[in-house]
Amino acid sequence: MKHFLLIANWKSNPQSLENACMLARALEREVKKIRGVEIVIAPPYPFLVPVRRELKKAKLGAQDSFWTGGPYTGDISPEQLATLGVKYVIIGHSERRIYHGETDSLINKKMKAVLEAGMSSILCVGERERIGRDIPAIVGEQIRGALREIPPRLYRNICIAYEPVWAISTTPGAVPDTPENSFRASMYIRRVLADMAGKKNSGSVRILYGGSVSQMNIGSFVRDGGVGGALVGSASLNRKTFGEIIRIASRAR
Ligand code: PEP
């Protein structure tokens, strides 16, 4: 059985290098104490190297990547990230779709480039509003768009994070999704993948949940959410809270 995967998405936090290194050191101490959980810390770009120096057991993640290197001012290529020791790259986060207008076709280019550079990619998908009980078709469209023409042999390096935007803690009025719904979402995502690339390839993709994950709900997502991991935003910025999330996830396995 694969380890439960916990990704700490720090977004554009903290604001100083000193605080980033302190937080990384503290999280690494928590990670060392537990088993059965794989931890990835995704700091902002400028802190990747100093944070990597603080990590032994936890792996290094990036929050985005451009799809190539060259004359693209301000962009970071997958090859550059790979040389820094990045193992996982978040692609298509809702904040990038909303604030930077990222389209499924751009996300598809990024996915291909990250996988070809030998890293794992964490594709974020999710609807903006909840309408009824069914998982909306937009989730399937985002997956089909992002994975277009990606060879199924690379599926084992793909994680898909179901992150309904209404559940992300920074969305006004956010509420975490229920484990029952994340279970339904994970079944839905598997069906979409199986239609695209067959059941075997679909089974090699790790499905995660993200949206207001905390020490209060992580246990139920591990046990009943039908997911192999979680993407954690705000709660990963607090050493004690994230430490507790890690311990609960490890015990609930
Ligand atoms: C996120 O933005 O990816 C996220 C999951 O944030 P939070 O845990 O704060 O809802």
From TrEMBL:
Its EC number is 5.3.1.1. Its main location: cytoplasm. Pathway: Carbohydrate biosynthesis; gluconeogenesis; Carbohydrate degradation; glycolysis; D-glyceraldehyde 3-phosphate from glycerone phosphate: step 1/1. InterPro entries: Aldolase_TIM, TIM_sf, Triosephosphate_isomerase. GO terms for molecular function: triose-phosphate isomerase activity. NCBIfam families: tim. Homodimer. This is Triosephosphate isomerase. It comes from Candidatus Sungbacteria bacterium RIFCSPHIGHO2_01_FULL_50_25.
